[in-house]
Specification:
Blueprint lengths: L14 H5 L2 H11 L4 H21 L1
């Protein structure tokens, strides 16, 4: 259903661990406080592009 290996939820440094990091939680909190839908979309696009570049570097 989630299209990720089951081990992802148990490995140290997994996606789940990164999502629980203080930086991730702060980003989620602050993103939720942005009221302008256009700005939220632009920020989401920026983060998606940064993540895709990071993935290609590995």
């Amino acid at each position: 259903m989630l299209q990720v290996p089951l081990a992802t939820f148990f490995e140290p440094g997994s996606t789940v661990d990164r999502q629980r990091s203080p930086d991730s939680l702060e980003l989620i909190r602050l993103f939720g406080s942005i009221r302008d839908p256009g700005l939220r979309r632009r920020i989401l696009t920026l983060v998606q592009e940064a993540a895709s570049r990071d993935d290609s570097a590995e």
